[in-house]
Amino acid sequence: MAVNAWNTLLEGSIDPDWAEEIDHFQAQMELRQQEKIDEKVFAETRLRRGVYGQRYDNGKRHDGFGTRELPFEDKPTKGPDTVWDAPGMQRIKLPFGGLSPEQLEVVADCAEEYSDEILHVTTRQDFQLHFVHIEDTPDLMRRLAAVGVTTREACGNSIRNVTACPLAGVCHTEAFDVAPYAKALMLFLLGHPDVQDFGRKFKPAFSGCEAEACGLVQLHDAGYVAKVVDGRKGFKVVVGGGLGTVPHQAEVLSEFTPVEDMLVEIQAVARVFARLGEKKNRNRARIKFLVAKLGIEEFRRLVDEEKQTIPHDPRHTSLVDEDLPVTLGTPVRDPASLNGAPRPEGFDEWHATNVMSQRQEGYCVVTVNLPLGDLTSQQGRELADIARRFAGDNLRTTVDQNIVLRFVAEADLPAVFSALRDSGLALPGAGSIVDVTACPGTDTCKLGIASSRGLAGELRRRLTTKSATLDEAVTGLSIKISGCFNSCAQHHIADIGFYGNSRGVDGRRVPHFQVVLGGQRRENAARYGMAVGAVPSKNAPEVVDALTDAYVQGKEHAESFQAWSDRQGKRGMRSLLEPFMAAPTFDEDPDFYTDFSDARQYTMGDLGVGECAGEVVSLFGIEVVKAESEAFDAQLALEEDNDPDAAEDHAYRAMLYAARALVRTENIDVSEQPDDIVAEFKARFYDTEKFFDRFAKGKFGRYLLDRHADPAPSGDPAAAARRIEEAQLFVEAAHTCEARLAAEATAISEGPVKLSSEKA
Questions:
Q1: Nearest residue to 96 (alpha-carbon basis) of 326, 263, 316, 286
Q2: In this structure, are residues 53 and 82 in contact, taking their beta carbons and an 8 Å threshold?
């Protein structure tokens, strides 16, 4: 559980803005427990801090180390009604997957002290910690923030983690190192006002070259491919990609955007998406639907038009200037070749799949192959030590749920292998068919239909057993498994993809997987596969055998799996699946009516509303939470700290935040300066009598205007108490004003009706 002493140890070591954000989140938690914040609003708040509820009906977790009981005694039989009822999940945000040994150690320590001692690498290069109690999350966030790691906007309707090729800076074919620009984009957009009013999440990615898999930019909401034109660095920019239930290929927004223009361009994209994107139907609220609806030409026109309205921001250029720090890393060892040095047992097999040369002569990239993306806290600390010794700060997570070490001298490879082997981290097969990618599935996700991790573990076990006899063409194939149709494991771009579903057989439910074939990772996810047919979960391993055997026997020379499957056609590929599509009756084989590593009869379990994005909450609803937190802090300052001056200051800020929340519904660009907020509020809401309470005759608005005109604190506890009451009334009046205006807008949009002339 939480270690309170850490708050003292870390005091002063956290970025002040990050510290304030975490303090606000903790205050909002307290307000929610007191039922002073609506659950939907708090859900969006916690999701934007990376805090999820999770599923428990399995009673077990399938991880890279086998099947384990849940790490607490009172195991719920179903998912918690609220995040307070049982532990949940904390996602950690790592731009371009980059982290230092110190950061890895802190994540490992947090996993040990707050979670179940497992660090899970996601397909967005994040870490996730499961079974975390929500009351521990503020302390966990502070510990991470002290080493420069944030959880802000790791989920929710926001800009998600900015991913990038883990080989950026060391790749042989890249145009230039894209990682610094990925970090610049993250820093610019993190908490930016223009990205707070999305209907759904928004995922960016960077790639250093066009032809490789790299950043998989074609499946992203915004993708950047590095280009150099006439000596200038820039990007080919694409928008509107996405997987999910209906995958979309991204469209070209710009064939070349110079690096100095990239931030103002993405800001314009965000504004267009926030203004025109779907807000009511979350199933169509991703930007891919907006681009498809408008067409890329019209979308491009709107973005160009929006760019002209964006106020000057020095960060547009300062974050990407010529002094931008590179992320290549500084080697800790001199380059040296292997030169026939003694090789430990198992080294050659590991070297064949887990090591590749860098463009910097004498250095290599080493991939640490993590089964199901998992490593233990102890392994995390040991890996940090190995990195310090051989690779410095050059750790990167990957979208394939692995970790890479960079700038490892060739001569050190035997020693690195031995150190990894001692930590249980020297498994071969990275990037091969054995290296199966899987989402959390029914282990922890409320949308999970079938056990993606259970199937992935079974396939990995079987394929590892016969890896020595696999045909070379099969070894290079990829398998990706999602627990439902949402493609969190990116099954659409695998050679062989699976996603979970279920079928009714013999009056019972049978877990199934839909088989997706024909996807292509290369050329940044150039092609998506199509579903061919559904098979019972327990037949999925036999399906992999049948497909790979048929491919080896039927391919022509060096024909790729995609080309071979295209040549067979959908009918031919389905014919390969048909022997495996039927399930026996329950009496014939009850094993088919259970899922992998779960002896219970299969049901749809705790299937419910997933938390991959929050409810669509208005921009006002998100912003006004700051005002409510300040009003609550004002009470604490007076009641607990006996500090009337601080209480009055908090009350004043509460009114400012509430006023700004209202103003931003009409003017998104209002600054955070008190004079500007008050002037805009007065002109738009007070003078126009939009902010008018019929019982108080409009005086609630005067509370802010009077306090702003005379900001000197009184030092009087009684006066401070009155100011707190005024602030609370002002915040409530802001809620009433926004609700009335929203109702009027809805009434107008739905047709001519008689609106009440009575002011709120």
A1: 326
A2: yes
Q: Are 64 and 373 in contact (CB under 8 A)?
A: yes
Domain coordinates in residue numbering, the chain: 5-145, 171-318, 347-422, 437-593, 619-749
Its sign, for the CA torsion 607, 612, 616, 621, is: positive
Read off the pTM. Answer: 0.85
* Cα(749)–Cα(752) distance, integer angstroms: 8
Q: Do strands 437-438 and 403-409 pair parallel, antiparallel, or not at all (unpaired)? A: unpaired
**Mean pLDDT over each residue of the chain, to the nearest integer:** 87
Spatial CA neighbour of 481 closest among 582, 373, 561, 560? 373
**171-318 and 437-593 agree in CATH topology:** yes
Of residues 529 and 758, which shows the higher confidence score?
Answer: 529
Which whole number is the average pLDDT over 286-298?
Answer: 95
- Do the Cβ atoms of 634 and 724 come closer than 8 Å? yes
Contacts for 484 with CB less than 8 Å, ≥ 6 apart: 441, 445, 447, 448, 449, 450, 499, 500, 501
Tokens of 360: 């910097």
pLDDT exceeds 60 at position 451 = yes
CATH class of 171-318: alpha beta
Residues 526, 395, 152: CA angle, nearest 5 degrees: 75
Q: Tell me the fold of 347-422.
A: Alpha-Beta Plaits (3.30.70)
Decide: 184 and 315 in contact? Cβ < 8 Å: no
What are the CB-based long-range contacts (under 8 Å, 24+) for 735-741? Answer: 735/624, 736/693, 736/760, 737/662, 737/685, 737/690, 737/691, 737/692, 738/618, 738/620, 738/624, 738/661, 738/662, 738/665, 741/665, 741/690
DSSP per-residue letters across 115-156: SSSEEEE-TTS-EEEEEE-GGGHHHHHHHHHTTT-B-TTSSS
Fold entry, domain 437-593: Sulfite Reductase Hemoprotein; domain 1 (3.30.413)
pLDDT at 758: 35
Class of domain 619-749: mainly alpha
CA atoms within 13 A on the CB side of 175: 21
pLDDT (tens digit per residue) in 601-647: 887 655 555 666 556 667 787 788 888 888 878 888 887 888 999 99
